[in-house]
């Protein structure tokens, strides 16, 4: 229970703060700071390039964490360092220094680089701790489910509250910029508070030999773990689609539906659906195998996207589509963590070494690379449909509205289907195979 809550609660503030950047930074730039179209295009290109570059660097941070030896373990020192730097860079990103125009673009580039590096340090060290907490699949699912539940509570608290809270704070503080900065201050403080619970109460339980990994061995560790590579490919496709949909959500309600206030209500419905799916996951996994859960979740998302596409401006039908989408997404979100975690034992079994952090460095790699692709699609969509200069839904034509829907719903649906097909064809670590691997490792670890 200490590991479930100590590790799980650590995600509560993390994902709330991360959502401010991954889901709302572009909206902040266009609708709060109101930067020009040329500057928005430049900032988008910078974000894409930096996330892609930083994603490639993630495995190198995995080597650093894996080779760390301290009395606090190899994960906790980096969790702390990353959290403090991440909080500080988040504050700088939403601070109003009075700089506008191309000077702001230069300042943004520097701050965003620091943000990406600090997020990498924290994210890799935090999630790579998960396989060391237990090697029992069922308990790992419970810990992962608790972590994802709290992560989604933090995320959806921001998604649901960001527009009404910033609107109310604007009345009090006198400007949109001050309101958004106040929200980030609160989220940064919460992130640090809940991360401290992980540092205090999470305990490593898996006793496995730890070998020093040389830098030149890095790509061999990743490249020879074929299961990790297939998971990475499949989940980059899946998370790209998810990132496109969620990033375009606030634009959808403001400029397509014409009801910006409905966004928070819709987000609350999605939060309940996704968190319910995560709560029910351990019970579902007792009755269905992981492959069956993956098929069920992918089917729910595909149907949800189709309903969403033809929902028009009906909030009821849109709500039904959202429930289907995010119920399936919640299941796949947890499955992704489990697939990567099981790849740790697979790598140890195949390669003779246990590299939790290098293996889990592929998770932020997935998030960043997919987010880079999503940012590219979102920025192209916003510029191509004229939303960057629109003031309301009346300024968006029918053709532009359908182009927006294709970007937000059709492209992500195809990516979800492609992700499932890759996993179905190439991922072989089912429950039986994992049990065989773990039995073999148990013998090896005992010197047999």
TrEMBL record:
* Location of the protein in the cell: Cell membrane
UniProt keywords (A-Z) are: Cell membrane, Membrane, Sugar transport, Symport, Transmembrane, Transmembrane helix, Transport
Asked if the record carries the keyword Transmembrane, the reply is yes
Name where it mostly resides.
membrane
CDD domains in UniProt: MFS_MelB_like
Q: Which GO terms describe its biological process?
A: carbohydrate transport; sodium ion transport
Q: Where are the transmembrane segments?
A: 77-95, 101-122, 143-166, 178-202, 228-253, 265-284, 296-317, 323-344, 365-387, 402-423
Which one Pfam family would you cite for this protein?
MFS_2
How would you describe this protein's topology in the membrane?
Answer: Multi-pass membrane protein
Keyword Transport attributed: yes
| NCBIfam families per the UniProt record, alphabetical | gph
Please report the name of this protein according to its UniProt entry. Answer: Lactose/raffinose/galactose permease
Which organism is the protein's source? Tessaracoccus bendigoensis DSM 12906
């Amino acid at each position: 229970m200490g590991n479930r809550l100590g590790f799980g609660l650590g995600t509560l503030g993390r994902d709330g703060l991360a959502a401010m950047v991954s889901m709302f930074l572009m909206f902040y730039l266009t609708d709060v700071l109101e930067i020009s179209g040329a500057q928005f295009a430049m900032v988008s290109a910078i974000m894409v390039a930096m996330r892609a570059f930083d994603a490639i660097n993630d495995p190198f941070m995995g080597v650093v964490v894996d080779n760390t030896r301290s009395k606090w373990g190899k994960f906790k020192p980096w969790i702390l360092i990353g959290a403090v730097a991440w909080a500080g860079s988040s504050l700088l990103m939403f601070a109003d220094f009075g700089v506008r125009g191309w000077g702001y673009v230069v300042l943004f580039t520097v701050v965003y680089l620091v943000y990406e590096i600090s997020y990498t340090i924290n994210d890799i060290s935090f999630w790579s701790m998960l396989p060391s907490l237990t090697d029992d699949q069922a308990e790992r699912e419970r810990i992962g489910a608790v972590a994802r539940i709290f992560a989604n509570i933090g995320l959806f608290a921001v998604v649901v509250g960001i527009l009404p809270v910033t609107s109310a704070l604007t009345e009090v503080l006198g400007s949109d910029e001050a309101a958004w900065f106040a929200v980030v201050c609160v989220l940064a403080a919460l992130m640090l508070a809940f991360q401290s619970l992980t540092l205090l109460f999470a305990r490593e339980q898996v006793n496995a030999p730890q070998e020093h990994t040389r830098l030149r061995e890095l790509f061999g560790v990743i490249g020879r773990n074929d299961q990790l590579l297939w998971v990475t490919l499949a989940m980059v496709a899946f998370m790209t689609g998810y990132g496109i949909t969620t990033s375009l959500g606030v634009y959808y309600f403001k400029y397509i539906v014409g009801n910006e206030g409905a966004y928070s209500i819709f987000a609350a419905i999605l939060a309940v659906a996704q968190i319910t799916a995560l709560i029910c996951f351990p019970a579902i996994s007792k009755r269905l195998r992981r492959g069956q859960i993956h098929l069920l979740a992918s089917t729910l998302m595909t149907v949800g996207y189709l309903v969403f596409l033809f929902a028009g401006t009906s909030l009821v039908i849109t709500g039904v589509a959202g429930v289907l989408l995010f119920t399936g997404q919640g299941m796949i979100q947890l499955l992704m963590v489990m697939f990567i975690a099981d790849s740790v034992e697979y790598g140890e079994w195949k390669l003779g070494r246990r590299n939790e952090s290098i293996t889990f460095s592929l998770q932020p790699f997935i998030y960043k690379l997919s987010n880079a692709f999503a940012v590219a699609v979102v920025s192209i969509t916003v510029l191509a449909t004229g939303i960057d200069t629109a003031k309301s839904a009346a300024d968006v034509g029918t053709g532009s509205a359908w182009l927006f829907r294709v970007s937000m719903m059709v492209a992500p649906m195809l990516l979800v289907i492609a992700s499932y097909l890759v996993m179905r064809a190439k991922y072989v670590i089912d429950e039986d195979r994992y049990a065989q691997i773990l039995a073999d490792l148990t013998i090896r670890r005992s010197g047999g």
